[in-house]
Write a structure and sequence with these properties.
Largest sheet: 7 strands, parallel
CATH architecture: Alpha-Beta Barrel
Radius of gyration: 18 Å
Helix content: 40-55%
CATH superfamily: Metal-dependent hydrolases
Length: 286
C-alpha cells in the first residue's frame, strides 16, 4: 500500500481529471466547483479531460440511458463542455493553469470520431484511453469484465486484446497522455501474475516503446486507490520499466467529484519518487 504523507518536493498537478456532474453522468458537482477546488489546493496546473461523447446510441452506458440521454444529446453537451472549459481557462489565467482536454475511447468507430472531435474543437490535448475490449466495457463492473473474458476466450487473451487495441490507439491518435495504462487489471485479483506472462509483457514493452518514440506522457492514475487497490495505474513493474526508458509520468486524480479533487496525488508523487521517477514537472507544451 502506498504510504500517506507529504511529497518531498514536487508541484501538485493532475494530467487527467475533472469529470464533473455537469458533463459526466457518473460524476458529481459542478465544473466551476472542481476548478475552485484545484485552485484552493494550490495546484500548479490541471488538465480537465471529460470523456468524449459516444459515437452512437449503442455505446451509451446504463446510467446515461436511464437519464434519457442519446448520443446526439451527449454530443451537444460536449460542445457546452468545451465552451465552459475555455471560459474557465480564461477566467483563471494567472491564478491556475488549466489545460482543456478530452478523454478518448477505442471501441468501434471511436478513434475516427475522436479525430473529428479534435478537428472541430481543437482541445489543448487528449488522453488516450481504452475502456472497452470487443466493444464490451471492461471497467464498469465484474460481470461485464467476465463477459469480455468470454468474448476473448480466456483472460490472457483479454489482456493481449486490450494491449493490442491500446497500441492501435497510440499510433492512430498519438495522444499527449496515455490514460491508466494497465486498466485491464481492474477486476483481476491475479493481475501481478498475468502481467508477467510472455504474451502480455511483450505487448506492454512494445506499447511503452511506442509511447517513448512518440514522446507521450503516462498518466499515473491514482483513482484506483480510492477503490481500495494497493497501487495506482500503471503497476510497479511497469513503472520500473518506464523509469529505465525515461518516459515521463504525471499524476492524474481522475476526479469525479469535488471531494476527490487531488485525492491521493501526494501519495502518487511519493510512489514515483520511491521508484526513482522524476517529479520535476513543468507545464507541458501541449
Amino acid at each position: 500500500m502506498i504510504e500517506n504523507g507529504n511529497p518531498l518536493s514536487a508541484p501538485l498537478v493532475s494530467v487527467h481529471g475533472g469529470h464533473s456532474g455537469d458533463y459526466c453522468q457518473h460524476g458529481r458537482d459542478s465544473l466551476d466547483d472542481f476548478i475552485r477546488a484545484y485552485h484552493s489546493m494550490n495546484f500548479a496546473w490541471v488538465g480537465i479531460t471529460e470523456h468524449m461523447p459516444p459515437v452512437d446510441d449503442r455505446f451509451l452506458y446504463p446510467d446515461e440511458r436511464a437519464a434519457g440521454l442519446t448520443a446526439i444529446a451527449m454530443q451537444e453537451r460536449f460542445t457546452r463542455y468545451m465552451a465552459h472549459c475555455r471560459n474557465l481557462q480564461s477566467a483563471y489565467r494567472g491564478m491556475l493553469t488549466i489545460f482543456v482536454g478530452m478523454e478518448t475511447e477505442a471501441y468501434q468507430g471511436a478513434m475516427d470520431y475522436a479525430i473529428r472531435l479534435q478537428d472541430q474543437f481543437h482541445p489543448d490535448y487528449i488522453v488516450g484511453s481504452v475502456h472497452h475490449v470487443a466493444d464490451i466495457p471492461i471497467d464498469m463492473n465484474p460481470s461485464e469484465y467476465t463477459r469480455a473474458v468470454s468474448a476473448c476466450g480466456n483472460i490472457t487473451n483479454l489482456y493481449t486484446a486490450y494491449f493490442d487495441l491500446q497500441y492501435k490507439m497510440i499510433h492512430t491518435l498519438k495522444p499527449s497522455v496515455v490514460g491508466h495504462f494497465d486498466l485491464i487489471r481492474i477486476f483481476d485479483p491475479d493481475y501481478a501474475v498475468r502481467l508477467k506472462t510472455q504474451a502480455v509483457w511483450e505487448r506492454i514493452c512494445r506499447n511503452l516503446e511506442a509511447v517513448d518514440r512518440l514522446g507521450l506522457i503516462l498518466d499515473l492514475n491514482v483513482r484506483s486507490l480510492l477503490k481500495g487497490a494497493h497501487e495506482p495505474y500503471p503497476s510497479r513493474p511497469i513503472l520500473e520499466k518506464v523509469r529505465e526508458m525515461g518516459i515521463p509520468v504525471c499524476p492524474g486524480d481522475d476526479s469525479h467529484s469535488v471531494d476527490t479533487v487531488g485525492r491521493h496525488v501526494t501519495d502518487g508523487i511519493r510512489h514515483l519518487q520511491s521508484i526513482g521517477i522524476s517529479t520535476a514537472w513543468t507545464p507541458p507544451a501541449f
